[in-house]
Write a structure and sequence with these properties.
The structure is a homodimer of 204-residue chains.
Chain A (H helix, E strand, L loop, with lengths): L7 H19 L4 E2 L1 H8 L3 H9 L11 E2 H11 L6 E6 L3 H7 L3 H4 L2 E8 L8 E2 L2 E5 L13 E4 L3 H13 L4 E4 L12 E4 L2 H6 L1 H4 L1
Parallel strand pairs in A: 3-4, 3-7, 4-6, 7-8, 8-9
Antiparallel strand pairs in A: 1-2, 5-6
Helix pairs in contact in A: 1-4, 2-3
Chain A binds a DNA duplex (22 and 22 nucleotides) through helix 1 and helix 3.
DNA sequence: CAATGTGAACAGCTTCACAGCC
DNA sequence: GGCTGTGAAGCTGTTCACATTG
């Protein structure tokens, strides 16, 4: 394909493909057609073909895409081929739920540290990790962590984000309901569950 | 404005506006300009004006939008003006985190029941609710609940969705990593946190 | 004069149709 | 025959520019 800027929406679908391919590999599939994959993910097959073609020609005409090879290509594209360390800020219910969520590992993420500011939580264990004092959040600077998951109350979100950015964090998954201000060089993905739920009654 | 189909993306932004307006009201604002609101939400002001104009002319030229009245209009549009009952399926970490999340109430949602299939959890309390046996999930049919939040492991998602649909549920917030099959008349919103996190390293 | 409301231009993404290849 | 790869068409959503109004 000629030069093309890769659509953000394409990038957003890549992790889904990766996950589906992982599952297919476990099922013993060696190849998969765009149509089969589309059925599984509730997408249309030309969409999948176009998405993958942005990165080169992975498939074989008449056959489909090689499951394992395509998966490892996607891992490379998304930079998930080397383990990605992430720090989790906020050890409330949501935070601990995320800490124990296996889905992150499957994509190559490793929760490498957990912080909270509540004295009752500091020192407690969550899985293999010990909750650290949020006052020392800036120390992650020394630990080669570039991603953060922000699961703190709205009031604390901006403040935490500032510390994280200062400590060299380059990507933040923001689960608080507030938009946070960060330098242009830091990528933020925000998810607000209440807001997502908020549209449902409209469609019902 | 002449006839226009309302973009889905516009609907997706409405709950954000609603929340921001609620917050502004607490701060004592009587009116707000599209520009101020845009700053808060990290959007552009023409976007907000266009979004709101799909539903009529809420604002006053030279002044802005009346905070309280606009909020109640949006509640009406989204059908959040009457309390919306939702059933929560899955009382794991994520489920209980959601059960106690105040953000839902703020938009007019009420978690009206919690189900789980694990015998150790059934009968336990979460807030004001008692966890019920997932085998009896179909009984929500009698309780005027039309929305569901699905926080169960991937393996159980489709099965639960089937029961929910049979029991008259019309909207599902699916937090499991699988796409679920439902009749066209049921609206599903899916959020997969791992997948959202998955794009970050690409942008870093 | 400050801010809305909106047609029109623009940008981005999806879908189509089919040529190309195994 | 079956399935990929892709330019082109179509669609959806965003941004602009400005007429309009309190």
């Amino acid at each position: 394909m000629k030069y093309h800027r890769i659509p953000d929406e394409t990038i957003r679908r890549m992790p889904k493909y990766l996950r589906a391919l992982g599952w297919l590999q476990q099922q013993g599939y060696a190849t998969i057609s765009s149509q089969q994959l589309a059925g599984q993910l509730h997408l249309k097959s030309p969409q999948i073909r176009k998405d993958l073609s942005y990165f080169g020609a992975f498939g074989t005409r008449g056959i489909g895409y090689p499951v394992e090879k395509t998966a490892s290509q996607i891992r490379q594209i998304l930079k998930l081929d080397s383990p990605q360390k992430a720090v989790l800020v906020g050890a409330g219910r949501l935070g601990t739920a995320l800490a124990e969520y296996r889905g992150f590992e499957m994509l190559g993420f490793e929760i490498a540290a957990i912080f909270d500011k509540s004295p009752e939580k500091i020192g407690k264990r969550v899985g293999a990790l010990v909750i650290e004092d949020a006052r020392f959040l800036h120390r992650i600077q020394d630990r080669q962590i570039r991603l953060a998951i922000l699961a703190v109350p709205a009031e604390a979100a901006q403040e935490c984000a500032d510390v994280l950015v200062d400590a060299g964090i380059k990507g933040i998954l923001n689960l608080s309901p507030l938009a946070i201000d960060v330098p242009r060089s830091v990528k933020v993905i925000s998810i607000d569950l209440a807001v997502e739920l908020g549209v449902l009654p409209y469609y019902v």
